[in-house]
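DM from R.C. (forwarded with permission)

"hey, sorry to bug you on a friday — could you get me a structure for this? deadline for the figure draft is monday and I only need the backbone to look sensible"
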Amino acid sequence: MPFSLYLLALAVFVMGTSEFMLAGLLPAIARDLDVSVGTAGLLTSAFAIGMVVGAPLMASVARRWPPRITLIACLLLFAGCHIVGALTPAFSVLLATRVLSALANAGFLAVALTTATALAPADRKGRALAVLLSGTTIATVAGVPAGALFGEALGWRSTFWAIAVLCLPAVVGVVRGIPRASVHAGPDAAAPTLRQELRELTSPRLLLAMLLGALVNGGTFAAFTFLAPIVTETAGLDAGWVSVALVLFGVGSFLGVTIAGRLSDHHPGLVLGIGGPLLLMGWIAVALVASHPVPLLALVFVQGMLSFGVGSSLIARVLYAASAAPTMGGAYATAALNIGAAVGPVLGGLALTTDVGLLGPVWIAAAMTAAALSVASLTRRIDDGARKP
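My reply, with the result:
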């Protein structure tokens, strides 16, 4: 894999840390800016919505720019938003910076997905995707816990400054690692128009691939978002074990995308056909043994590996299905990921009010995974029908 892919992964790590770090900072932000914790939670929702809207919007606006310029512009905007966020005393301004940060993040990821798969050989898109998405998984292992500790020691604003500073080596990495006239440097006369690329969204194969990615990612985030109360209340562990559980999930997710990246290009059926049912059984097992700390923590690791392994393979499938939309394919993959990331926690939160209680989000994860397996079965029938003479 080209070294430039690892430089793109560095930027994804920085952005992933920013996306997830607020989970441990909301109480401090609420106190400092004199709002309720519930109101402060809008910062997370705003970021998710910005990611969903921002991916196709930024990709369509920047489709005639060289990827190198787009990636640098998104990183600089992202850094600037964090500087403003670190300085502002107003919650409304902080909320606006989170929306703009999400737009920048979505634009960067959409272009980076397309650029990463274009830099790699045509039959190794899944491997390239695994390298890129490893930045997100490392953020859950190291970046998010470090951000929480940093914020606790020096205040929540220090984490915003840290993210802004970390954007600088990411910018240098893009400048040095992405050629000035890199692949997909903007559509030429023979390339499809934006209307033609948007028309690809009517393709059943692409829509089903996006739906699969959204369902699996939605299930993952439904359970992951509410992991802390399960660890402390259902399993009865001390609060310090929450960080252990998050690290276990992050290490598992890193292994998952790494292993799946080596298999998804040439054996996608193996990853999805075996990993999908195992993922479903794993969520059911979590719900059944959540009151027992040792099997719970073991399953957190396994589910991190399975959910990100299957999820990254599905995103690779979106990119393959969107091959006729070279500048918008990354945006479609990003939108699918973040629709799941936005919907999953909402459904998980609603499930908390049911009789199932704290395990409601885990059952939502199981239901969304079961739905994904049903969609996968439909996708196989469509693909088999397309192959028949």
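R.C.: lifesaver. The two ends are 37 Å apart (CA to CA).
me: no worries. The domain at 1-186 is CATH 1.20.1250.20 (Growth Hormone; Chain: A;).
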